[in-house]
Amino acid sequence: MTSGAIGRAMIGLLALAMATSTATAGVGDPQVSTDHPWYPGELACSTFDRLFASQAVAFERLMGRPPGSDEDRSLASWLWRSTHYWHGQPADLDLWGFGFGTGPDPTIREYWTGLFAFGFGLCGTTHAQWCAEIEELLGHARGRVVGVRGHNSFEAWLTGGPYGGGRWALLDHDICTVVFDPEGRRLLSIPEIRADLDTLADPSHLPDRQRGWPLGGLHPDDPEAYDRYTTAEYLAGYASAPPMVHLRRGEVLRRYPEPGLDDGRTFAFWGLNDRNGDLPGPERSRTFVNQPDRVFRNPEGSGYRPGQARFANAVYRYAPDFGSGDYREGVVAEDESSVTFSFSTPYVIAASPPDDEPWGVLDDGCRNGLVVRGWVDCPVSVSIDDGRTWLDAGRLDAGALDLTDLVKGRQHYLIRFGAGAEALADAGLSWMTVCQANSSVLPRLTDDGSAVTFLASGRAVTSAGPVVEHARTHLVSGSFDSPRATLSLSTPSGEKAVAVHASAHVRSGNPPDPEVTYAIDCSTDGGISWRPLASDWAIPRRGEEPDDFWSQSFCWGSAPIGADDASSVLVRFSNTGGKPYARCEAQLVYQIPSPDWTRVTFAWSDDSGDRSHAEVVPGGEQATWVVPTGSGVQTRWVEFEPVAGTRE
Q: For residues 292 and 298, what is the distance between their CA atoms, to the nearest angstrom?
């Protein structure tokens, strides 16, 4: 497609998106943190800069000094992930449009989704995601997933001091293991450990060499897996746009660190139903999550306790106001006979399974993920590919519809009501979307007065992907499974775009060719000019390698948008080796022009019983306050709500 044709296609998409545009308000990107030493909340970890600052604080708290070297920073990263992410089996995303758990690679490899929507994964899943963090922390391709016996481990390429120009070092957070040499000078690689496994994998052998860090911290037999060294996965995961929430007027987000929701008995999740401890949903009995003080200088390891780590929930409730016109903040299309709303989340839509089977969330008959209420006789339909196709959801003629099976395991949907705004105005229309979240990234209060910081950047994000069929709606040139593809993406109502993120899943070959380079470019003028998001991206080969390799990899990048009036972008993917792109995705970050104020409410229990406290923060401002907690605090939930009447 020529640049002019691409531009015309973008204009058509933009016109559709803006057909019902209104002044965007609500609250963009609300976040909080508390003074909890380990689990302050998302404002401490929602960007890599914030994350690395939090990791440095935790490292210094244990070591008495800030991290300075590659080794220090890697251990700080390893420590944080070991105390915030646990081994468990998530339900896959339907990335390829073939159904859950199918397609060429159903693994959840995106970093922020893994961290915020799950907080648990199998060994290969978590270590693939961690590649993106190490990429940001140390540099290009300096982390890799390594196959060992019955396990996928991780190595980082460290430099300086005893590592000289560079050595691979084992950093396995899934089984909470690092191994130092006999003198305690440096971390060892898997081949070095394998050469003297019985001695080096024995925690009782020269224990001081470990400097207090665990070796087999979850179970002493775990390091036996290093007796094999089979495959390497370079660039095995990636990072897209950081997690952002956009709440429209009439929409409330409440997050629960513990499962059960308000009644304590509603369990909605997206993973294996372990039922360990006789409670539904994913859990982990051996982990340092929720007991981070045991991770350092503790020869007893994590111990075993059913339910030591479990899932959390994020619940969106939306009751659009048709009387004031505020409902249009959530609308993407409208005419006299229908109104279509959008929904997106950094979490993942959960489900209450119809049975107690391990994979019941994948069965038909799930509940509580999306429930629509209202008294109007109209058809309802749902799209999970940005409106290219629609799924019949039935009629809203009996007061409620449970649409969980249509949207579970997703992070985005459109919902269309087959009635005009006038008919919907008196229907009492509302809907609830229940998502799974990682408890470790939710804010927790502390005893005897807990300090809280709130910030709303006023930003939001719209996406093309990661699901192939969602991205295909935005494909304007080239094709997937070919060496070139171009996506088009616009802000929902012509808002100013401020940043673009993009990534690609590449069939890069086995072994990977380090001479092939990959590029991602973007254009804000319809393809007339381009600027790089990722350029000269290659798969370098370093140090000792196993005999086999993963035949795929990821390329990703981001950049701010400098154009003052840009509201749309083209993103182009290409490479010099003719390597096909299995799938591509892009995210466009935009600025909300008229931010509302935010009511922030914490609910907790302490020695005085069940309590709550709310503060209202002006739009666009940062605020701090103290929540008047007592002793024995248990955080029950935290809620964000846009406050009306503040728009200029």
A: 11
